[in-house]
Every structure is written in structure tokens, then in C-alpha cells.
Amino acid sequence: MAHQNGGIQHNGAADLVRARAQLLDSAGARTSRLDPQALRAALVDLFELWLTNKGNELGITADSGLAIVAVGGLGRREMLPYSDLDLVLLHDEVDPAVVAEVADQLWYPLWDAHIKLDHSVRTVPQALRVAAEDMIAALGLLEARHIVGDEDLSNLLIGGVRREWRTGIRSRFDDLIAQTTTRWQRSGEIAHRAEPDLKNGRGGLRDIQLLDALSIAQLTDAMPGLGPEVPGGGLLQAHRRLLDVRTELHRVAGRARDQLRAQDADEIGAALRIGDRFDLARTLSDSARTVSYSTEVGMRTAAGALPRRGLARLRRIPVRRPLDEGVVEHSGEVVLARDARPQRDPGLILRVAAASAQTGLPMSATTLNRLSEDAPELREPWPKDALNDLLVLLGAGRGAIDAVEALDRTGLWGRLFPEWGAVRDLPPRDALHTWTVDRHLMETVAGAGALSTRVARPDLLALGALLHDIGKGRAGDHSVVGAELATHIGRRLGLWPSDVRTLSAIVRHHLLLPDTATRRDLDNPATVRRVVDTLDGDVGLLELLHALAEADSLATGPGVWGDWKASLIGDLVRRCKLVMAGEPLPRPEPIDAQLLAQARAGGVHVRLAAGESKHTYVVTVIAPDAPGLLSEAAGVLALHSLRVLSASLGAAGDSAIDTFVVMPTFGNPPEAGLLRQELIRAIGGALNVSEVLATREAETVGRYARARPRVLWQPTGTPGQVIMELRAEDRIGLLSRLAGAFAAVGVNVRWAKVVTMGRAVVDAFCLDLGDTDSPVLRDRIEKAVLAVVPQPAPAPAPTESEAAG
Hints:
The chain is α+β, with helices and mostly antiparallel strands. The protein contains 31 helices and 17 strands. Strand 12 (642-652) and strand 13 (655-664) form a beta hairpin. The longest helix is centred in the N-terminal third of the chain and has 37 residues, at 151-187. The protein is globular. The model is unreliable at 1-10 and 799-805 (pLDDT under 50). One of its GO terms (molecular function) is [protein-PII] uridylyltransferase activity.
């Protein structure tokens, strides 16, 4: 539909829309699918051609006093399939009525064609005034590019904006950095988000535009710190990768979009020939961290290059403060001393990094580049001083994370640890992990530093934290593969043979304590004996694994480490130490005489007592033993917002004595009398626990799981008993539903351990199958269990066109 204004018929832009659709059509018989870079170039040419023809048609010529200037994607020559079209119509001493008429005939066809348009009509002084008052507008106009019309007029604007940006940067720099920091806080880090914002996230395309703005201000060059020789190909390659992914995101979504959704990742990865969604995540992490590091360097360099005014000009030249041999602080950065000789000093890399980690000062980009170019390889085995500097670096807490990140982005960390390449930017395979594998290793190192006084060998704890997942990204069990790699690395570092063996054992068995504590019956002496035998009775190794288990869990993600997991592992370690010392294991306490009396008397009884940790409570339920009792009891606890952490089941005569360790979701637990009344109602059929739980769950959001649940079977060493482990996402009353599923199949549960980690649970049940154990029975149990746990959302039904295709 054409618009009319003042009797003027506006010609449409249907030809522009059709041409864009043809470029995006990958199924056409005559055209092959354009790769993202070619598509962007074709879109730039298409829009420029249309604007040029339209401008000539409207009389926007070289001597007209009118010009069309592009900003945004078209201005940067980065036109994406559904990017907004950002245009400025400049005019100079032209009749306002004529300008309004030209503007209408330029804007209306684009609106009619449903092309998103951000437009303005300005004189050069007006545009410069807007740029001076509005930071966002100024950043946009820095990317301005002449399209058609009076080029001198366009150059007057472009030159004026850039000149005023350079002269005014000192007063605007703090606001620019504050805006950037706010954007990062709002959008998060691309490298560590499941669904990152490619444009606004930290390490995204906005950061590259920030670097360009700082370069225009002549405060830094456009590619600070990272050239094409570093891992990932440097900043230019990272920029192109981010653009390519965002281009495909537009193409897949059929509209403008900045956030990469998980359901689109596989298709985008395949279109870019990167691989699946995990390969795409790894590529994005590498690119975003490259951009993020370059942005930090650029901002730091710019801050140091700001022109001084007034008395600041009289400030004395910064003093070079010695930090270590060949390493000094200068202007807030760690740099090489004037007499440093990196060509003859292979350990200088680690001294510089250790100084940075300890002081919290960043390493100068120039220093890192010089080390990358001149520093020789460390000979094997490493000199003792080099190993000591590595341990100083790893022991610096969170300062080590930034230091190693800088070394890694510039290729120096990979020179020290070639094995790092397999875990660099490797995405986690489960939702519990927050970080990429390499960042997780460094987070574990930082956490281990705070636990160093708990072990006799803090050096081996730090190295074990650094290497415990080094086997990931390779074929085979990562603990086994990692142990072999740790042996090679330990020898390279110059460790004593006995320390090499211990380091290898740390990596091999780093999951032993948490797996055993959360999935085995600690009251069974065979459980403790198995751990002791695995560690050859080495109490020092046990202490190292205990500290590493905590640091590893804390570095995994929120909710993975808590009071209950800490108490489980602590109890296992205590029992192992008793065996290693030749002392008898503690035996389960006999059932309280009062409980036995209540059980023999019959009826329903509930006791509530404080637990071992601050927020836990122990609920003891005594009731006539019958199928479904565990389900009803666990359901009543769930109805009162009591999260079950573990359950142990016993009996006396015809009564069951079930004990639950619980944690209130909020507030204090209800009175034991109320729990008893509700349990009596549930047993008698007056309260349908499963129905109430289902109603409450229906009122919540996000009922679908992100990951598919898994059921694993493990032997116990006791005939007729097996352990069924469930890994799934949590839901209201999950233990009650699971107990109901076991009862429906006719299986008795001897004990249960429920470990909740964020949204995920790892639940272990000791099932008494007796002589009926068989693959058929286990299959029935699995199906019953999987029927009551959250499942991933069903795939959407194909559209008619997809079904036809």
C-alpha cells in the first residue's frame, strides 16, 4: 500500500525486499547458498544500490546540498539479514519544505516494505550537537559512511564527529567505561552463558565497536594485544566468527535477534560447518574471550593515554617499582625491567605471571607480546625456580585466574602446558557446570588456595586442582586419561618420582570421595574398605582428595557444594582415617528405646529434632509397615516444603522406622504434630499426596528438564542388593514419586541418599531385589522411575511446509 503526502505518490521498496529474500533463499535452484561473509557483502551492495538509485531519483546529487549517510550495520559494512537500516538525511541551506518532501519519499517506501528503519534529518551542526550530548548517538555517528549525494557535506559531518570525539574523550571516557560495565552486568559473558547475547554480552560485537571508538580517539590501536598468531587466530578472526554466527542466527530465526537460543545452536553450527552445539559453544567461547581480553587491554591502554590537563601535566613520571628479578611495576601494569633479557631467561614468563597474580596488576600487552616473541622454551625437567614460580602463581587465589587467562590468550600458557589445548574453551556437557573446562580448572585452583592449610602438601593440591580435569576433550575416561597426562606433566615440572605418583593418583581418583559418599552406604564396612584399598592406605592422599573435592564442587556451580555434601564426604574421610590407623569403624547406633517402644505399640508417630548442621533437621517416622509408606511420608514432607537430603529405613516388628534428614526450603519446619496428622490422613486415604503435589507443580513454571534423565546400576557386594542411581532434574516431591514407583513395581528400598545440586539431583537407592534380579526387572524399574521424573520438552510438531519438504 502506497502512502500519499501532499499529493505525492510514494514508490514502494518491494523490489528491495524481493532481492533480499532471494539472497536469503537457500533452496533456490539457480542460486547457491551464500556463506555469511558473502551474504553480508551482498546485502550491503543491495541496500547501497537501492539508496543510490532512490537518492538520484529524488535529486540527492553531488551539488544538491543533500546527502544520505549510513550508520550502524550499513555504515560498518556489516549488514545482517534483518538488521535495522540506520540512515541520516543531511541538508545544508535547503528549503525545509523540500527537505520534508524528500524525507517522506525516502522513508515511506522503506516503512511500507516493513524494513526496520532508524532515521533522522539533520544539518551538520545539529548532528554534531546531538553527538556532543548523547554518548550512544556519538558512538553511532563514529561509524557514519557516505552513501549518495553531497559527499563534502557527509565528510563535514564525519570529520567533525571524529574531531570532537578526539578532543572531548577525556571528559567522556569515564561515562563510556561506566556504560560498558553496565552493559556487561546486564548481558553477562558470552563465553559462559548457555544462551549468550552476541551483540551486547561481554566479548561481543559492541566491545569491538568500543575498541574502534578508542582507536578513533587515538588512545589505542584497533587491535590491541592479539594478532593472528595467537590461539584462535586473534581479534580479527574472533570478530568475523561472531559476525558469522549472528548472521546465521538472523537467517535461522527469520528476524533480527542477538541472543543465541539453545534450540538454534545445532542448526547454526551445521550451517557454519563448525559442528554441533558444543562445537559452536567452544568457538564462541574462544572468540568472546579473545575479544574480552583485547577490550580490557584497549581500555587500560586508553586510560593511560588520556591527555592530561592543568596540574596533572606537572605530575612526575611514574616510578618503576621492582617486583621480582627482571620484573617491575610501571603505570599500574607489570612490565619487564630495562635490563631484562627474555631471550636468555626462559623462566621470565612465570615470574611475570606470578607477580601479576600476587599484586593484582595486569600484565602489559607489550610485555606479553615481547615474551611471546623472544622467550625460549623451558628445558625439561623444569628448573626448581620455574616450578616455584608456577606454585606462587597458582597459590595467588583469584589473581591467578586473570593472569593465566592473559597468558593463554597470548599463546604463552599453551607453550608451558601443551596439553591445555584440548580443554581450552571446551564447553561442559551437563547443566551443573557454569564454566568451560579450562576456566573450571582455574576456578578450582583459586578455591584450593583457600584450603591449602588443610593439607600437608599444598603444592600437590594446587597442581592437582590445575590438572584434575585435564583428560577431558579426549577419548576415554577423563580420570584415567588425565592421570597419564599428569604423570608426563609431573616429570616435565621436575617433581620427585613419589610426588609424580601422588599427582597422578589425585587426578585418577579426584571423584572417588564425592561419588562414594553420595552413592554408597557408609555404614557398610565394605564401602570404607574399598576407598582405603584404592588409596593404598595413604592418609596424605586422602586429605588431598578431601580438599580437592570441596574446591572442585565449589568451582562447578551454585548448589553443588553444601552442608549435606560436606558432611557426607567428611564422614567418609573420618571412617577411612580410622581404618588407616587400625581402629574399628563406628557402628550404627541402636534404635532409641523410646522409638522401639512406640513401634511395638503400633500407631503413627513423628519425631522432629535438630540435625548436625545449622539448617538441617531429622524427621523420624514410625508407622505400620505397608507398601507405599515411604512415598506417603516423603510426600507429606514435600507438601510442607521440607527437602529430603537422605533417608534410612528400618523396622521393628510390624512397624517401619524411617529417618529423613531434611532442610526447609524457607523458614522453620512445621511442628511434628502437624506432620503426624497429615501422615495419618495420607495413610488413611483422606489426603491424596500425589494429587496435591501434581496441583502444586502445575502452578509452577519451567516443568520441563533441560537434560535427559539417566539411570545407572551399580553392585553393592551384598547378594540380592543393587544400587540404582538416578541423575535428573528436581521437581516437587520427587522422592515421594520415586518411592511410589518402586512400590508399584514391588521393590523394597533399604536406604536412600538424595543429593540436590542446584536444579539437578543425584539420588542413590539401595534396592532389595533378592532372587528376582534380572534385566527384565531392572528395565521395569527404570521405566517406572523415568515416568515420574522431568523429561525434556517434546520437539515441536513440524509445520505443513516442513512436513511436505
